[in-house]
């Protein structure tokens, strides 16, 4: 029981990391079933912490080596004394997630640190596979869906989301000394990444490159979302909600005339909630998962995670217990806060509102 309470505290800390670090993921996760929500939160928290470390000013390859040591320790069953590491170790063991998957994610972070150039679309997809599709296959694993087709579609949905991120963040990335647009495409428009980074400025030529990237994202997105139909029914709404949020971001970039230098497309909290509420009736429903071969750049992730139905051994029961414990703690904390806001004279609650965060 002591270990269970400790793990519950770790997962509670992971939820805080996600609430502050990735609002889109947090809102979409509210629609996932308890065990999947907590497992995915543990995975995403470790990814978020790792990404933040790699993105710190002055981050070096030594910092990345330290992350690899943390990853090795988690897989050895001796995770570092950090909430994200502890919860992550439990999840990857329970759901049989191969270490090569998060290790590929760290390789993507390494490419950021060394300033890797992306000459072709395939190069950009290689990067996106590492920083985004890795999350997709891990999510599929915690949903206990390990068939080749489902994993391929999960990877491709991750690719599409990352391409949308790149299109949205061209200006922000350039100001941070990075460019993820294919050099070949830039050259065709008389542009290059060095000039873009030195002087981020929107031009119609740059807009055409961003449009082209979004068009690629749309094609991959249409393939990736078919995999939602192969997920457990209880998980489809959450994944569909996330897909809708990213599609909305892409449409906002288009509505802004592809100018992501001077403005950053985003969806408000209210809009995210609206998309979540609309997702059950949204026509992202398919008769079945597309059986096309995986996009070449994600095939290595599919190969690593594919399992026969008999070999899938995920065990989410311990997470259900933790979820119940977290809810109990939330209710106790809220009750205490509400009691503290009551005035001694009237016993009525003050105007301070205490909201429960699921």
TrEMBL record:
Tell me the PROSITE patterns matching this sequence. Answer: SQUALEN_PHYTOEN_SYN_1 (PS01044), SQUALEN_PHYTOEN_SYN_2 (PS01045)
Pfam families linked to this entry: SQS_PSY
The name under which this protein is listed is Phytoene/squalene synthase family protein
Tell me the CDD domains matching this sequence: Trans_IPPS_HH
Query: Can the keyword Transferase be found in this entry's annotation?
Result: yes
What's in the keyword line of the UniProt record?
A: Transferase
Species in which this protein is naturally found: Pseudahrensia aquimaris
Q: Which domain of life is it from?
A: Bacteria
Note the PANTHER family from the entry.
BIFUNCTIONAL LYCOPENE CYCLASE/PHYTOENE SYNTHASE
Bias-annotated ranges (Polar residues): 338-358
């Amino acid at each position: 029981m002591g270990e269970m309470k400790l793990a519950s505290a770790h997962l509670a800390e992971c939820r805080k990391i996600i609430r502050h670090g990735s609002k889109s993921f947090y809102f979409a996760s509210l629609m996932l079933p308890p065990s999947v929500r907590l497992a995915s939160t543990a995975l995403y928290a470790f990814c978020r912490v790792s990404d933040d470390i790699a993105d710190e000013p002055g981050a070096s390859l030594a910092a990345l080596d330290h992350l690899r040591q943390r990853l090795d320790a988690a897989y050895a069953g001796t995770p570092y004394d950090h909430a994200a590491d502890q919860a992550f170790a439990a999840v990857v063991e329970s759901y049989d997630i191969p270490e090569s998957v998060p290790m590929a994610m760290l390789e993507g972070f390494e490419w950021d640190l060394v300033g890797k150039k992306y000459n072709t679309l395939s190069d950009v997809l290689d990067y996106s596979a590492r920083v985004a599709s890795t999350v997709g296959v891990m999510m599929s694993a915690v949903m206990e869906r390990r068939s080749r087709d489902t994993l391929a579609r999960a990877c491709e949905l991750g690719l599409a989301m990352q391409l949308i991120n790149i299109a949205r963040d061209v200006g922000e990335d350039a100001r941070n000394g990075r460019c993820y647009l294919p050099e070949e495409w830039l050259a065709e428009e008389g542009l290059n990444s060095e000039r873009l980074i030195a002087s981020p400025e929107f031009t119609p030529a740059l807009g055409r490159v961003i449009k082209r990237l979004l068009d690629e994202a749309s094609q991959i997105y249409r393939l990736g979302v078919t995999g939602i139909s192969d997920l457990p029914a209880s998980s489809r709404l959450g994944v569909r909600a996330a897909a809708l949020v990213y599609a909305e971001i892409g449409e906002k970039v288009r509505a802004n005339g592809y100018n992501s230098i001077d403005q950053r497309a985003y969806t408000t909290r209210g809009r995210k909630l609206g998309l979540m509420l609309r997702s059950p009736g949204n026509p992202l429903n398919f008769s079945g998962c597309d059986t096309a071969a995986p996009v070449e750049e994600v095939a290595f992730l599919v190969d690593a995670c594919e399992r026969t139905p008999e070999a899938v051994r995920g065990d989410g029961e311990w997470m259900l217990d933790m979820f119940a414990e977290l809810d109990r703690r939330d209710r106790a904390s809220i009750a205490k806060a509400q009691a503290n806001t009551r005035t001694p004279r009237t016993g009525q609650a003050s105007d301070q509102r205490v909201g429960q965060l699921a």
